[in-house]
Amino acid sequence: MLFDFHTHTFLTDGVLLPIELIRRAIANGATAIAITDHVSASNYEFIIDALVADCRLAEKHWDIRAIAGVELTHVPAEAVAEMAREVRARGAELVVLHGETPAEPVAPGTNLAGVSCRDVDILAHPGAIDAEIASLAARNDVFLELSAHVGHCLANGSVARWARETGARLLVDSDAHLPEEVLTEEMARKVAAGAGLDGEEQKQALLLNPERLLRRIEERTNRA
Ligand SMILES: [Zn+2]
Ligand SMILES: [Zn+2]
Taking the complete model, does pTM exceed 0.85, yes or no? Predict the structure, then answer.
């Protein structure tokens, strides 16, 4: 079983067409893949409509759960909740928030806004976090991401540590932009093990938490 809830296409800064990304995920054995191109107020309508079209095309003909999501990216922290509502209303099936990665100058307060907002499903690559962020993520059922992506992955150890302390739920995502970054089971396991997760914690992050998120998406979109 292989799940990936954070990927990009050439609709923003990736290189693959959405349907090719889905095809490559299937070739790697994926059960479900979410496409989550970068959005803000400027482009979310176009991106969501385009992703829904290829996700439905893929699901009609192939055995894959394809999820049309977004990654709210460098949105002002004060606007995260409102933007999350707007993208949902437009049809986004999954809302990822681009967290305070050590690799980019993300606005301080973005992590706090994300874990405080029930319209955010995943706080991506949150960087070095603390007990407050992880506790709120646990309370509001916002998943925290362990990232396979270079740069973003520098803080996976902090994310794993505080998730363990607080009961926050972890996921492993690729944040793939290139064909060679499309997730494999081997890479997902390496990311989880490299963040220090033990066997039971790896099962949570790689299987049980993704299944929980998938159920949430299916209940929300009435496509169970
Ligand atoms: Zn990107
Ligand atoms: Zn991303």
Answer: yes
